[in-house]
Specification:
Layout (H helix, E strand, L loop, with lengths): L5 H23 L25 E8 L7 E10 L11 E10 L2 E15 L2 E11 L8 E7 L6 E4 L23 E2 L6 E5 L6
Antiparallel strand pairs: 1-2, 1-9, 2-3, 3-4, 4-5, 5-6, 6-7, 7-8
């Protein structure tokens, strides 16, 4: 027999049910202290999942006053276990440049990714392109992740075409001199933290 008054028992039971519902909701949503995320996306308390060593993702168009349609899309990653070797990066990136219906595009298989702070340099070999002579050429791209005002550079900046740049080593590109067109997208750089 309970010593609490009937109204007190009802309040205590209601509080217990409310607490149980709150806990169930938090756990179902993957929340709670054991699942809180750190700034790198890793879950606290989940030691089996390491954050990847580096990444460059996202899509955006470059700003050109003449209206050129220039788009870059990245999905490049360096796994945690490969942090000491940026040439083990995986993924793809794609770029295209069109003006008045003329232009070309290319699909690239990533072969190197290095990031420092919010700057990334990624390179890879062109696997598909409608630009004659581009397939098999290595290209590099630099991205500076500045929120919605990102900047970008590419290895063929001084030659005008990936076909004319000549042989290129892995993870080489130019300074990020181009600006992203406002409202066209965003790039995200995950900083590399090598064991030095």
């Amino acid at each position: 027999m309970s010593l609490a008054a009937p109204s007190a028992r009802r309040r205590t039971r209601a509080a217990a049910v409310g607490t149980a519902l709150l806990v169930a909701t938090v756990l179902a949503a993957g929340g709670g202290p054991a699942a809180a995320s750190d700034d790198n996306g890793a879950r606290a308390g989940d030691r089996s999942t390491e954050r990847e060593a580096a990444a460059l993702t996202g899509t955006a168009k470059l700003y050109r006053s003449l209206g050129d349609d220039i788009t870059f899309t990245f999905d490049a990653h360096l796994a945690a276990e490969d942090t000491d070797d940026p040439s083990k990066a995986t993924g793809t990136f794609r770029f295209s440049h069109y003006l008045n219906g003329d232009g070309a595009s290319a699909e690239v298989k990533v072969d190197c990714l290095v990031t420092g702070g919010k700057v990334a340099v990624v390179s890879g070999v062109i696997t598909e392109s409608d630009l004659e002579g581009a397939e098999g050429e290595r290209v590099g791209v630099t991205v500076h992740d500045l929120g919605r005002k990102d900047r970008l550079g590419y290895s063929w900046a001084s030659t005008g075409s990936p076909v004319d740049q000549g042989p290129l080593p892995k993870c080489v590109s130019s300074a990020p001199f181009e600006k992203v067109r406002a409202g066209s997208g965003d790039f995200t750089v995950l900083p590399w933290e090598p064991r030095l």
